[in-house]
Amino acid sequence: MVTDSRYAGLDREALIELLERRDAAQQFGLVWEREELEAVPAPTLTLDLGLSVGDAPHHNLIIEGDNLDALRFLGLTHRGRIKCIYIDPPYNTGGQELAYHDRYHGKADAYRHSAWLEFMAQRLRLAQELLAPDGVLFVSIDDYEVARLTLLLDQVLVGGKVGTFVWRRRSGSNDVPPSFLSVDHEYVLCYARPGFSFAGLDKDLSGYRDLDPGNPDPWKRGDLSKSHDHRARPNGFYPVHNPQDDVWYAPNPKRVWAFASERFVKKGQKLRRETMEQLIREGRVIFPRRDRTACYATLAELRAAIEAGQAPHFLQLGLFDTPEEETAYLSQYVGRRLGYGTPGYKRFRSEVKRPSKPISSWIVGLKDEDGAQNRTVLRSGLNAEGTTLLGQMLQTAGVGFSYPKPLSLIQTLIAQATGPDDTVLDFFAGSGTTAHAVLALNAEEPGSSRRFILVSSTEASPQEPHKNLCRSVTRERVGRGVQGYLYRTRSGPVEVPGLGGDFAYLRAAAGPAEADPHAQLWFALQLRDLQALVDYRPACALQQHWADDRALLYLTRTNPEVLEDLRQRVVEAGRPVTVYTWQAEQVTEAVAQEHVTVRAIPTELRDAFGAACP
Predict the structure, then answer these.
(1) pTM recorded for the entire structure
(2) What does the alpha-carbon distance between residue 225 and residue 537 come to, in Å, rounded to a whole number?
(3) Residue pair 563/580 in contact by the 8 Å Cβ criterion
(4) Which pLDDT tens digit goes with each residue over 49-83?
């Protein structure tokens, strides 16, 4: 009898339930060895003001600990509220063990992909619940796991695939495998909710300079044709008449007119755009001035001119399968004055649907020449940029970090994906580049107040039990980004000013909670309502967070003294006040004020922490 199986303790009903869930699960697609998440107490957060930067309230968070615990807590506070998630997870190359609570298999182990997939799946399932209705997820990865990760994300965010960015991480290497191929690129997989859209790159509207009398809307010359040939769009293959000069213009057989002619419009047919004749009547078609013209009295003369290359160049022979079709086509131009130029039309700036154009999935280097000429591509530095910058920032700290992503890459993605008040999450924070990118964007854009939430493990191990990556690298780098830093070069010291901002430094734990459950409730309530933190004061029954435009209060207990203190506070508040309490009816009667809203503790927070509260 097997006694060491993880299923040995399950009774018959539990085993049947497990098998039925597996039978009902999706069978097509990626398959790996999965582990059921154990039911654990709600995770807890502990605030360390000594490692926090800036004065409270803190609007940004750095969370030390296993990201599985941190994501569980954020599920209580940020569900459906994160606009952008960027992560740079372990690439599963087998070079090092994962410094998390999960099991991990080495490079030679046949189950290494399965273990890594389960490690990622558990976290991605929690993370996707945090995305806003217009939220987006970016995941950096290389060739080793990109195929499996794509299939996994297809399952976690069904129908959410936006695309894959490809970027150049290095300029080449001599350290290559026997195949002698230098793999110089990596990927950023992009998945999103249905409401998401990139900002796009600004269109060049400088060409809209011409003005018509009495119309302040500038215009520029536009193309009257579109990229369809005469066989694909026969109704767009017709002569256009300039009634003022009585000159006719033949269409390009490879690019027919983009506007329909009234002669082909059926009765009752609805058109998405104006007809060619309507544009001509409105004076929006730009006919060539002082154009060269020719007139051919007979079909034979026209054929001879075309064969000799003397007719307008869009008139061609051999466009049709039968002589009858060609004769009908050419007959339209016999006996008419034919122009050699090409008409255009006035495209007004007000008709531009969007002031930006779509971005390309190809990210070019900052020094690549094609990037300077192509207005649809994003640009990023190489990994060397990230290594150099981090080395400068942590020069005096005596610590390092391998292969940090370039700041320009993450800043470019966040700029495209977020607005000035959005929240960005990175739960594989590593060197803290994501926070640096958020701070840099806020500094560049006056009035911007993006927030960041970073989660980083300590990466402690039996070999390095005292290692704390989050404290020594993540926190140190972000702190110097906020406050400024100094590094030395051969030419002398260089002082880099701070970008401004703040962050609270917290530690996440899986539980059971030794921390005061009221403290956990207070942190959760603040993050839900204000997205900012002040510390918990254990000796106070009335927890208070006074923001500029509103206030948040939490009653850990209710008695006459506490209610009297509450009355005085809300009377003097001068702003809207929200009060959370375990006795909502009693408190509502005690503080009946128009600017005061009394709320019971939310159900999910009661379930998470309420059992331990008095």
Answers:
(1) 0.83
(2) 71
(3) no
(4) 999 999 999 999 999 999 999 999 999 999 999 99
